[in-house]
Amino acid sequence: QAQLVESGGGMVQAGNSLRLACKVTGRDFPSYAMAWFRQAPGNEREFVAAVTWSGHSTGYADSVKDRFSISKDNFETSLYLQIDNLKPEDTGVYYCAGRQVPRVLPGSIYKRRDQYNEWGQGTQVTVSS
Questions:
Q1: d(CA 119, CA 4)
Q2: How would you classify residue 122: left for phi > 0, otherwise alpha for psi between -120 and 50, otherwise beta?
Q3: DSSP sequence for 82-104
Q4: Is 7's pLDDT higher than 90?
Q5: What is the pLDDT of residues 34-52, one digit of tens each?
Q6: Which among 103, 91, 95 has a CA at the least distance from the CA of 29?
Q7: Average pLDDT in the 49-72 region?
Q8: What values do phi and psi take at 9, rounded to 5?
Q9: Is the pLDDT of residue 1 over 90?
Q10: What is the pLDDT of residue 67?
Q11: Long-range contacts of range 40-47, CB-CB < 8 Å, 24 or more positions apart?
């Protein structure tokens, strides 16, 4: 029932930064645990970063934890992914994902694709060297 729309992708040179956004409508967004996944050409969709419903706890894939930062703004009903020092291997389609959970603290981090039932259509990130 929720609608998730990603934005902020583009074609950039290595070393630059991007800030991806995911606008969510149609649901009680503060009750959603959220995540970013990405799919590189020829590869399966992989976990990138996740955040609890409250926005106060995060988790990252080992390959991105030093350069990526996920955040959740419950007032704006939006999810963000700040990417610094982009590398060619970051190229892929980035997907926003969500699941509605009980609003119980501290909340949980979900890293598997099958743990999410709401998905955006993705935004393309292309990094050249």
A1: 6
A2: left
A3: EE-S--GGG-EEEEEEEEE----
A4: yes
A5: 999 999 989 999 999 999 9
A6: 103
A7: 96
A8: -75, 170
A9: no
A10: 97
A11: 40/89, 40/91, 40/92, 41/91, 41/92, 43/92, 45/95, 45/113, 47/111, 47/112, 47/113
Residue 124 pLDDT greater than 80, yes or no: yes
The two structure tokens encoding residue 6: 């990603």
H or E element in which residue 12 lies: strand 10-13
The predicted-structure confidence for 98-122, as pLDDT tens digits, reads as follows: 999 999 999 999 999 999 999 999 9
Tokens 């963000």 — which residue?
Answer: 80
Query: CA-CA distances (angstroms) from residue 89 to 2, 31, 57, 66, 122?
Result: 31, 33, 26, 14, 17
